[in-house]
Design a protein that fits this description.
The complex is a heterodimer of chains A (399) and B (343). Chain A is an alpha/beta fold. Helix content of chain A is 27%, strand content 20%. With 343 residues, chain B is α/β, with parallel strands linked by helices. The relative contact order of chain B is 0.15. The chains are: A alpha/beta (399), B alpha/beta (343).
């Protein structure tokens, strides 16, 4: 049903593919979608800038929808209110994300229904470990991102403008229909940065819910609070990439800010959204004991000890090819610190076969979910509790 | 308007990338730089020629082609140290810049549409002189980021092999691999990397709401796939870092800034109420000196209009100083080291 190696794999650094292998895999994945190809779904994240867009000559206006989150200013300028960056955008210019354009004082998203890549993935690849384990998600992305992480594993689409990547018209109802066709209980907005296609995500989530399909989002959380409430209020679960616990790192490596991301996590908690956190560990840059400890303490104090926290392995890519792969002992050190701070569900990611990718009961320590690769091979949780000691295990375990 | 992928084009690209072609062009550039400085010795001033013609538009609204050619000739001869009474044909100035066999990219600026884009008569005049200097028409490409923007600015998109070509990067795409320097990591237009060994920069003199001004250095944002990533902090140090990329730095030979119409406020989009007919060209081989000079022209116009300085508005183009610093050394922004020659 789905390719073993596809965009998400590369994003997470699970497999250190070179570009050729990546493309081969992605193409195979597109083919694996079967009917998808007939629908014009390549399923491929082509190297962003490698070729002129396949959509040349197409009617771009169908991708262009007035943005929801912005403020009109004098002299045909606008202020974007989607993310904390608050880009001031003059006429005919675009915001930092590259997918929103000011046309005569009206701000437009250029990526509504403009899908640059689509895959059917195990939900464990997002990763969401406590949300419908063992299911698959119909996963889509457009071009664009509101930050520029120097380690981005998927920069070919995230750091490109929409016209620079081959894309396909997939209106919200089609997304829901395709999800249903591929027996996916969820639609996942992922790969690039869903913040920048918020309007599309909202409409697709509505269409999905009408068809009985849930929605999840994999995001950097770098979004204004009101936009978050409006857009992610429509989500059923959220995974936030908390890239560091340092403002300096966010400024230098991510080109963003830490505080708004922490604010987003707190807001999601208050909204009652199921949320998991991923922390990609980069050797020498965000791997100190103090940072791990500060992070764990903050999570426990502000979100609670039951929020799953995934420490994942970095693989060199994009502008940080000079760094080595994160050593497994570093990840184990991070987990040990977070465990010691009292967090109940601390995972190690991107390390196939590592025992810390399984879920254990925080009370009796028995294994409750066994994971092999990106599949949940054994799920013992019964009625949201440990079958051995009846300890409640937080999460959405069954549809 | 035919396909861009012909065998002859491939052969052409191959020829373009040959070491011999690059070496020839390098020699020509040195000659021009030496002529420009007047002495060719270290410590010489960077020359910025500001050529004006109050009658550039004749009695109409559009630029007169013959007067534009004459203005360009005057500017180039002055840049090359020739006297205005010289018996040398104006093409001699161009022969110091290019040689037969060179493939020349003319990077225009067409973001602002017909109102405030690189003037077509200026481009035509340069093409004429380049051909007289021995560059084949088919070896000249007029380009910018997007073909549609070129057309909106009045250019005719053309991709024939035996005449001057004109198209946007959208027709051929960007390189797959990243080019990186400092804060910049970008994919370069294939027009820059595969279609030309000499780059002539043809920006427009404009105010810029974020960067302060956009003239020579910032026009290189049209060469990369992700310019939107480099607008924070007044585009500093991104503009300077971008111009350090070897493909840009080694191919850049000359900047001819179009100030026939310029914008002193509200740019980079066209704001007729904030534009003026400066009827001028700024020419230099030092893009930093040219940018500094252009910035001062905009400041003078702003003062004349009763507007605050860009510094007072906290949008002074700090990237110009960065481009001149010891790390970049792309030129000079020191007024004592800039010779502004008005002709």
């Amino acid at each position: 049903m789905f390719c073993d190696l596809d965009v998400e794999n590369v994003v997470k650094g699970q497999h250190p593919l070179d570009r050729r292998s990546f493309l081969k895999c992605a193409l195979a994945s597109g083919a694996a979608l079967g009917g998808g190809a007939a629908l014009g779904l390549s399923g491929v994240a082509q190297p962003a800038a490698a070729m002129p867009a396949e959509t040349e000559g197409e009617d771009f206006s169908r991708f262009t929808v007035e943005a929801k989150f912005y403020q009109k200013l004098p002299n045909s300028k606008i202020k974007c209110k989607l993310c904390p960056r608050e880009c001031l955008v003059g006429d005919k210019e675009r915001g930092y994300c590259g997918v929103r354009e000011n046309r005569g004082g009206t701000y437009y998203t250029l990526v509504h229904s403009r899908v640059a890549t689509a895959h059917v993935d195990p939900i464990e690849k997002k990763p969401l470990f406590h949300y419908l384990p063992g299911t698959i998600a119909f996963s889509i992305a457009t071009a664009g991102c509101n930050v520029n992480c120097k380690f981005c594993q998927n920069w070919e689409i995230s750091q490109s403008r929409p016209e620079q990547v081959p894309s396909h018209y997939m209106p919200p109802k089609s997304v829901a229909e395709l999800a249903k066709q591929y027996d996916c209980p969820t639609i996942a907005y992922t790969y690039s940065e869903p913040v920048v296609f918020a309007e599309y995500l909202m409409d697709a989530a509505d269409a999905g819910h009408e068809a009985g399909i849930r929605s999840i989002v994999v995001s950097n959380g770098f979004i204004q609070q009101e936009s978050l409430k409006a857009a992610y209020g429509k989500m059923d679960a959220v995974k936030i990439d908390l890239k560091s616990f340092s403002e300096s790192y966010y400024s230098k490596v991510v080109t963003g800010q830490l505080k708004p991301v922490l604010d987003s996590l707190v807001t999601l908690r208050k909204m009652g959204k199921w949320t998991e956190i991923v922390y990609l560990v980069l050797p020498t840059l965000n791997d100190s004991d103090a940072e791990f400890r500060g992070l764990a303490q903050w999570v426990k104090a502000n979100l609670g000890k039951d929020v799953p926290l995934h420490f994942t392995q970095f693989h060199p890519e994009y502008l940080l090819k000079n760094l080595p792969i994160t050593p497994v002992p570093t990840l184990e050190r991070a987990k040990a610190i977070a465990d010691a701070e009292g967090l109940h569900y601390v995972y190690i990611g991107n390390v196939p076969g590592h025992p810390s990718q399984n879920t254990y009961c925080p009370k009796c320590r028995k294994m409750l979910v066994e994971r092999v690769g990106f599949t949940a091979s054994k799920i013992l949780i019964h009625k949201n509790s440990c079958p051995f000691c009846q300890q409640p295990i937080p999460g959405i375990w069954h549809a | 308007m035919s396909t861009t992928h012909s065998d002859s084009r491939r052969a052409f690209i191959k020829q373009t990338l040959s070491g011999a072609a690059l070496l020839c062009a390098g020699g020509a550039a040195k000659t021009l730089a030496a002529a420009e400085s007047g002495t060719g010795t270290a410590g010489a001033k960077s020359r910025v020629v500001v050529a004006r013609d109050p009658l550039l538009r004749g009695t109409g609204a559009s630029v007169d082609s013959s007067r534009m050619l004459a203005l360009l000739d005057r500017a180039m001869q002055s840049l090359c140290g020739q006297t205005l009474n010289s018996q040398d044909h104006p093409v001699e100035a161009w022969r110091k810049l290019v040689r037969p066999g060179d493939t020349v990219g003319l990077k225009v600026n067409t973001l602002g549409g017909r109102g405030i884009s690189t003037n077509i008569q200026l481009v035509a005049a340069i093409c004429e002189r380049l051909q007289e200097a021995g560059v084949k028409a088919g070896d000249i490409v007029v380009w910018d980021r997007d073909s549609e923007e070129l057309e909106r600015a009045g250019f005719h998109v053309a991709i024939g092999n035996d005449r001057v070509r004109c198209f946007g990067t959208d027709r051929v795409g960007y390189e797959q691999e990243l080019a990186a320097w400092g804060s910049v990591g970008s994919c370069l237009s294939k027009i820059l990397t595969q279609y030309c060994n000499v780059l002539i920069n043809l920006p427009v003199l404009k105010d810029h709401d974020g960067a302060g001004v956009t003239i020579a250095l910032k026009n290189m944002y049209g060469v990369i796939h992700n310019p939107n990533k480099y607008h924070p902090n007044g585009c500093n140090p991104f503009v300077a870092d971008l111009n350090m990329l070897p493909e840009i730095r080694t191919k850049m030979r000359l900047t001819v800034c179009d100030a026939t119409t310029a914008i002193y406020e509200g740019g980079p989009g066209y704001k007729p109420e904030h534009s003026w007919n400066a009827n001028a060209l700024l020419i230099s081989t030092d893009p930093v000196a040219l940018d500094h000079t252009g910035w001062q022209m905009i400041e003078r116009k702003r003062a004349e209009k009763g507007l605050k300085t860009l510094t007072a508005e906290e949008r002074a183009p700090r990237y110009i100083a960065t481009a001149a610093d010891a790390e970049h050394h792309l030129g000079t922004n020191d007024p004592r080291k800039i010779a502004i020659v008005e002709v």
